Amino acid sequence: MKASIVGALGAVIAAACVSAVPSPVDPFDLGSASHALYPRMSAGQSGDGSNNDKSKCPSSNGTAVSGYQYAPYSEPVRPQIHFSPTVNFMNDPNGLVYSNGTWHLFYQYNPTQNVAGNQHWGHAISTDLYHWENLPIAIAPEKEGEGIFSGNAVIDFENTSGFFNESTPKDQRIVAFYTLNTATSQTQHVAYSSDGVTFTKYAPAVVERNQTQFRDPKVFWDNKSSRWIMALALSQEFGIVFYASSNMKDWSEVSRFQSYGILGYQYECPDLFQVPVEGGPDDGKMMYVLAISINPGAPIGGSFVQYWVGDWDGTNFTPRDQAVRTMDFSKDFYAFSSWSNSPGNKAYAIAWANNWEYSQVVPTSPFRSIQSLPRELTLKYYRTTPQFGDLILNNRPVNLSAISSKTLYSKKSAQGSKNNQTVALNGKGAFDIQATFKLPANTNITYNTIGSFEIFAGDGKQSVKTGIQMGEPTFAFIDRRKAGSSFADSNPFFTDKTSGIIRYQANYTDDQYVLGPLPTSAYLDQSKQDRYISLQAVVDRSVIEVFVNDGELAGTSVFYFDNDQIPAKAQVSVGDNKLELVDLEVKALQSIWKTCQH
Amino acid sequence: MKASIVGALGAVIAAACVSAVPSPVDPFDLGSASHALYPRMSAGQSGDGSNNDKSKCPSSNGTAVSGYQYAPYSEPVRPQIHFSPTVNFMNDPNGLVYSNGTWHLFYQYNPTQNVAGNQHWGHAISTDLYHWENLPIAIAPEKEGEGIFSGNAVIDFENTSGFFNESTPKDQRIVAFYTLNTATSQTQHVAYSSDGVTFTKYAPAVVERNQTQFRDPKVFWDNKSSRWIMALALSQEFGIVFYASSNMKDWSEVSRFQSYGILGYQYECPDLFQVPVEGGPDDGKMMYVLAISINPGAPIGGSFVQYWVGDWDGTNFTPRDQAVRTMDFSKDFYAFSSWSNSPGNKAYAIAWANNWEYSQVVPTSPFRSIQSLPRELTLKYYRTTPQFGDLILNNRPVNLSAISSKTLYSKKSAQGSKNNQTVALNGKGAFDIQATFKLPANTNITYNTIGSFEIFAGDGKQSVKTGIQMGEPTFAFIDRRKAGSSFADSNPFFTDKTSGIIRYQANYTDDQYVLGPLPTSAYLDQSKQDRYISLQAVVDRSVIEVFVNDGELAGTSVFYFDNDQIPAKAQVSVGDNKLELVDLEVKALQSIWKTCQH
């Protein structure tokens, strides 16, 4: 039935000239630059994208062509490798499911305005989690004033719902769960699709409880109890309620996870999912992670995501401890959601890369907000301190080689090198910068033992910076203080600097893979051995995502250069020269968007 | 024995001309300005404090006179109503105890350098928690390389320790507990004082466990089990261990509070103390609060304080839930500690107003770091959401009338007023600004429905801002983005903007004082009634402390104006004019420090 999907999408693809499905004609061939993604970068072209006949470029977000303000996907603030809607406002990722070789991304979408409201489920698909093809809106409200709020989707392989007939291949039986928001209630509803494009609503609410703050269903098939489980947020009561069902229609409450972690003002988007352990004696073993998004009231201001690692016994989720851990140290990572039915016991996820404190006023037009890079999740064992062992949720970007193009700089294992490096960022504003810093044994560090990337705009003045500061523990930071002032000066919530701590690399043998307190004798004196820290920054016009030590720590910050500037130069520095820059690789990343050419 | 304290302090007072003990001659009489607190503000005076004969101004922090770089307590960055050491580096408050009419403040102090290290217990006393008299260092290490780390103090009324003879009045029997830090261990020690000035060490360690990360004893007499209880941090194991003793010398472990809340890299400064409930059916009832400081690894970056409300049964602390709450929404409030033996079932506390991410490099000289305002704590019942009731730790500054001088502006209950207001901040850089904003019923708010105070430096360019943004919920924020750029531009951790959420004022009758989830029917639609929000900012040269709704939410941020500027003008604004400024009062606060004059 792959064919039928392609068939169903045919008309869409033809209309959606901003799609980026790989084609025999390499869409990434910069040589044939008859259309400038970023007109200002190409001499001799007008700045208004006039190579494109906009009248022939309908929006695949379902919006009339008049909605366009500019050549689609070419705006200076428009990320080139992150998913964003052509026009108007997007927030949470929804309905993430892998079906018949295709990754589905639905998302909270307002098709009529560039602020939140009038919520629909927008829709895009991909075969590699990078190149997205925009599809028509999947689920829309029936009445004005109602909204199709967040939820998730699963494959109903065995047709437990009865929604499908036997001609629909098993892995194409998509059932989506969402919250219907009205002025007086939030109730849980179901819609299903046999072709992955058009959805049919099942009329009755499947879960309701006379509540206005009850939302964001996450459903999974539970092998332990052989039934469907739905997690829901009783948002302003700070409860995650679990329901069970055999047929997806009749649900009964089975347990509750109440008042854990940072409460803030609302719990949202609960996601209970399985994640493989990476390395060590439990390598490959699947464990449960419960993620809860908080908004507002995160300590960092506004929105953030916290999680617990624990056990699901078929009825209850029991976290390993009462501690709360955060998934991303910076301020623009919210409404985290994992993909259902990921192949090969892998866990993939994405999050909305913005913060409700300012998301509706950020200076992007005609669209607002992007999704984070897709991330592959594992649980890795770390010494969070010399005396404590922990399983930490590792999140690294899904393999970027699918979108890497030109290597702009590469230096591997340069012995004893301590030099700084400046690299011109020739390309469309999207780059992958990876370095390894070495701190030799017995080095006396200072406050300036910092390894950093400063990414400058074309004007050479504005910049966004990320780095690590060696210490006990070592910090990672993102600093957008100089990344444009017109928005930052006027908004009291657009925090400039964020930071997190980097954990020890654990030695499974020495540590015996102990969770919790470790014997003091297990102390590792890191100052007496060479230390290596890897830092990766994916910079994409108006967003930077930072990954330390292959995803042990991640941070996501959006930024908004003034005067239509895009990233143009990277300066890699080693502060007081006590660190050595041993490896450095800078790659241009290719836009995932084809521009309109007819 | 008050006399004997005064006697013992006589020599100190004579030498310590920076003391500010109220005297018959009003030390706050600005008319007799023969000594300029802030020379640059007074025409015709040299800027180096030359009115003071520095050779006659020994430091009461125990440092040689050569340590002075400037007329003491007159530097532009020097807060005038917050405690700070004359010279060199201070961090955690320690040994807070009320004894014989005197509030004792000990503090982590490096008497030889303006960075952390060589830790001693500095000492100051007060009769009103504002006017501090510097005393000689109270507890010093015996050997180089050792440090007297944080701890607390109690009154041993019944001489359970045997350290005192009967001639010492009961409420003057001070026993201090501290951690002795060496290269190979952290052990817990005791020192005692009969005169409140000189301390005698009890030689043996009283608690040890072959640990290098085991510190910060907090001791209290437990009426429930009729014994002393000591809380200690197993810092890098994320445990709070409780010990019990009948004689202060022999301690045995009784319970542990393990892996709660944000772990970060270290637990520090546990404080289990009693706090009175304010208002409602339990008014005056004492409840237990456990505060734990985290550093680094707070979500906001670096250091912060989290707390739990719960029960102490004589052996175990049991929090009411697994949620973690924070005590201050901003970035400069750490090592929170409460006073032992506060009179009248009151709870008073103070915290170090800085953050380890940058505290050792902030641009203040010849001293670094200040303590927060003293705060009075209560537990108040709030609707944290329309559907959830909670007891929240309220913290408001101890009555500022003790240090208020001139009223610079006052407008009370100006009917229907919507205007903005600019007030010249005439004084020494310390001011108390209080406003009440009203949002009339049925107002459609916008992102700019903001009530704010912007405090400008004398240059009219630099400023620090605080405010509230109306919404569901309403936010409070502090923004130091424009408060000096030379330090902020160079430090990757000095975050500009912080924010928190404001809870509903609860109605005890309607809500029936329910903790946790409330019936949905209890919903209060605040948009349909007039709302009032009070905002107080205490600005003191290089620090701003913000209190919303009389302490329901508090935030503390330091800031560093460039070019020796101090606060000079306050601009009170109501954004889009949908808020009304109904009350405004601006008062100058008098310096708590007398300058040296001989």
UniProtKB/TrEMBL annotation, chains A, B:
SMART domains in the cross-refs: Glyco_32
The UniProt record lists the keyword Signal: yes
GO CC, any one term: fungal-type vacuole
GO BP terms, alphabetized: sucrose catabolic process
Domain Glycosyl hydrolase family 32 N-terminal residue range list: 82-381
Location of the Glycosyl hydrolase family 32 C-terminal domain: 414-570
Coiled-coil annotated spans: none
Region (Disordered): 41-61
Pfam families: Glyco_hydro_32C, Glyco_hydro_32N
InterPro entries: ConA-like_dom_sf, Glyco_hydro_32, Glyco_hydro_32_AS, Glyco_hydro_32_C, Glyco_hydro_32_N, Glyco_hydro_beta-prop_sf
Single GO MF descriptor: sucrose alpha-glucosidase activity
Signal peptide: 1-20
Lineage top rank: taxon: Eukaryota
Keywords from the named record: Glycosidase, Hydrolase, Signal
Family: Belongs to the glycosyl hydrolase 32 family.
PANTHER family (alphabetical): EXOINULINASE INUD (AFU_ORTHOLOGUE AFUA_5G00480) (PTHR42800), INVERTASE-RELATED (PTHR42800:SF2)
Protein's recorded name: Probable SUC2 - invertase (Sucrose hydrolyzing enzyme)
Organism (species): Pseudozyma antarctica
